[in-house]
Amino acid sequence: MTRARRPPLGRSLLRLFTVQGSWNYERLQGIGVGVAEEPLLRDLRAGENGAAYRAAVARGAHFFNAHPYLCGLAVGAAARAEHEGATPEQVERLRSALCGPLGSLGDRLVWAGWLPVTSALALIGVALGLGLDAVIGFLVVYNVGHVGLRWWALWAGWTHGVRVAVALHQPLLQRAAAWSGPAMALAVGMALPLSAGYLGGAFTGWAREVLAVATAAGCALLWWGRGRLTGLRYGLALLAVAALVGWLWR
Amino acid sequence: MSIVLYRVDDRLIHGQVIVGWGQPFHVGFIVLVDDAVRASDWEQDLYRMGVPPHIEVSFASIAEAAQRLPEWEADPRPGILLAGSIDTLAALSANSHRVKRINLGGIHHQPGRSQRLRYVYLSDSEAVKLKELAGQGIEITAQDVPTARPVPLEEFA
Amino acid sequence: MSLELQLVLLLWGTLVGLDLVSVPQMMIARPIVAGPIAGAMLGDLGAGLQLGVLFELFQYDVLPMGATRYPEYGPATVAAVSAAHGAAGALGLGLGALVGLVTAMLGGLSMYIVRRATARAVHAVTDRLEAGDARLLVRLHVSAIARDALRAAAVTAAGLGFAHLVRLFLAGTLPLRGVTLLGIAAVAAALAAATAGTLRVVGRGASLGWFVAGVLGGTVLVWLR
Questions:
Q1: Is residue A4 one of the residues assigned to a domain?
Q2: 3-state helix, strand, coil in chain C (%, to 5)
Q3: Which of A13, A210, B38, B44 has its CA at 20 to 30 Å from residue A48's CA atom?
């Protein structure tokens, strides 16, 4: 068993900001996770001509996928397990078991929670006339949560090692996950009519009625046509129809 | 309502399952069928952490799942049954004859597998096994999230 | 638009494209950021905010999970603002949406190509990776980031080129009703995409009540204004 005196968590954190830079269909985030873990493994270079280090580096770059902001938890936990002499099978099992939960928790917390909440607040701000201030506010507030989560994940992973499930029991995390859904629904729900008012201000009379009908039809088509129709395809189709009707109805 | 999705996904419970499928189908329970996870308390603890409190999670071995399948199918709540490998769902369908549709949601790269879709890598023997299952009348499609097109087996195996 | 300004937009679009997945995911890739900053660079903050809001709504249709394929709205918004620059109201929305949606589709396709190329690069050195070659690991990672930067630059350049063509050949030729209908199409599609995308994530559980409360609250605010 070896133990880094001062683990280079800062260097690992910096690399974690690039964790998805080499995302690919074969190992998904594996290469990026391996790159982020490597500084934490350098103490293993001593002895056996660095065999333990090389084996741990190779394991660190195997297939992995989770929410990018929570990858640090797996990076820290796996590196700590390597230092504590866990067997290769234990480390592989730990990484593999962390993929799903960290993906699920992160997607609920961030992609379906913190990100749409803060972006919806920015939309509301712009619609209410705050302009660029709303945009800057979004960037600052969102990234306080973003950077905080990345740092906490790495620290918690390194602190708990193979007992990393303890970190995920953190009450604040569980409360945040529970509230992210309702908060997102409320914020985006509020942003929608305000954005409609902001963008629809350019239209009057019959144009507003056509806008309402096309929006309602789009909602229905996208809801029942999922798997075949996306927002982008609906947008392009509607633009083509609008251009055609516009030319004919001069 | 019973089980709305029989899914093979080597990451088991993750974001695509919980947010992608769980939310629009208003899923009330998830059954994770995996002999190794069934035997490991700490892994079960981890998987529970990724699931919101309103979704019940059960862990079962293949043998237990074959036995309890009728009970889950009679559940009034919509549910998802997840397995980490094709072998698991093949064994389950052989034992129960109740699995009529299989969704391939994520089978990733391993030595011996080749890429069939962005998120589906299969070995030749796995492809043959899927064709055998399809020959038994089971509808097999690949679809990672509900907004993607379901890809029929004959297009990739 | 001067060449210098086009180059500044190209640089911004590249940074935005790199931010989406690779480095550092601080969300300058969100249209609500990419658009207004591009607008400020062009001295047309109004167009930037308008297109930023429009494409932010489209963005709610996307959940970037696992190997899912999705459109890339960041560089697309930069190109859209370039197309809409100087064209007020419905015309700006319509032209911007046309350029932005085509560029977003191209961006999604380019990500797929780059990810496959990176997979091939990784596959080619599997043996050395399994031997724990840390230098190779880092080199592979850095070259993949460079590949993504090139991709983002190419997508932005294509979008800016398309925007230039649209401004040159389409902007002045549309009849008034055509302009209005294009604007309506852009806004209706964005609102529909945002609503359907959000409802898919909200589901039929307790959050649906919060969504309805939000819509009602937002509607009251619009009415009060």
A1: no
A2: 80, 0, 20
A3: A13
C67 to chain B: which residues are within 8 Å by CB? 106, 118-119, 144
Q: State whether A39 and A121 are in the same domain.
A: yes
Tell me the residues of chain C between 179 and 218 that have a Cβ less than 8 Å away from chain B. 200-206
Alpha-carbon gap: B117 to the closest alpha carbon of chain A (Å): 9
Phi/psi for A219 (5° steps) reads -60, -45
Calculate the CA dihedral of residues A53, A54, A55, A60 and round it to 10 degrees.
90
Closest to A194 (Cβ–Cβ): which among C54, C210, C221? C221
CATH superfamily assigned to domain B3-155: Phosphotransferase system, sorbose subfamily IIB component (3.40.35.10)
List pLDDT tens digits, range A153-173. 999 999 999 999 889 888 888
Instruction: Evaluate whether residue A212 is within a structural domain.
Output: yes
B46 touches chain A (CB under 8 A): yes
**What pLDDT was estimated at residue A250?**
73
A85 shares its domain with A24: yes
B·C CB contacts under 8 A: 49
Q: In whole angstroms, what is the distance from residue C183 CA to residue C186 CA?
A: 5
Query: Which residues does C99 contact at the CB level (< 8 Å), separation at least 6?
Result: C76, C79, C80, C82, C83, C159, C162, C163, C166
Number of domains in chain C: 1
Q: Which two tokens stand for residue B97?
A: 């004859």
Residue ranges making up the domain that contains A90: 9-202
Asked if B76 has any chain A CB less than 8 Å from its own CB, the reply is no
Quote the DSSP letter at residue C29.
T
Please check whether residue A68 touches B, CB under 8 A.
no
- Degrees to nearest 5, angle at CA C145 with C82 and C154: 30
Cβ of B11 and A99 within 8 Å?
yes
CB C1: neighbour CB atoms within 10 A? 14
The interface predicted TM-score (ipTM) is 0.95
Same domain for A183 and A218, yes or no, is: no
Q: Is C113 on the interface with A (CB under 8 A)?
A: no
State whether A110 and A189 are in the same domain.
yes
Q: Which residues of B touch A93 (CB under 8 A)?
A: 43
Same domain, A146 and A36: yes
Contact C30, C24 (CB under 8 A): no
Q: Per-residue pLDDT tens for B48-73?
A: 988 988 899 999 999 999 999 999 99
pTM: 0.93
Q: From chain C, pick out residues whose CB is under 8 angstroms from the CB of B77.
A: none
Given a cut of 90, is residue C63 above it in pLDDT? no
Number of domains in chain A: 2
- Domain-located, residue A131: yes
Answer for the pair C189, C182: CB distance below 8 angstroms, yes or no: no
Do A183 and A215 belong together in one domain? no
* B21: nearest CA partner in chain A: A104
Chain B contact for A228, CB < 8 A?
yes
